[in-house]
Amino acid sequence: GSSIKRKYPDAVSIFILPPSMEELERRLRARATDSDEVIDHRLLAARAECEKGAQTYDYLILNDRLDDAFDQLRAIVIAERARRGRVDIRLLRLQS
Questions:
Q1: For residue 23, what are the contacts with CB-CB under 8 A and spacing of at least 6?
Q2: What is the spatial distance between Cα 31 and Cα 50, in angstroms, rounded to a whole number?
């Protein structure tokens, strides 16, 4: 996130969080594609990423229900497009 912000200061960062670490573990184990050791490593990395993301990203979306998470993402995009400085108001000819 921070390297992107340095290169693109107007960038908006959005971090997608799992509903809980327990749910993330349940989802990883339900896939049955990784060993316990790999899952444990992924959970440790995910915890660190979530802690950093929660402190540094502009927006946080809790991915509990896909439809709700998508609606939140869409709302952020719509709101950010309307942010002052991103809307071209030159056609209004406000300055004399």
A1: 64
A2: 21
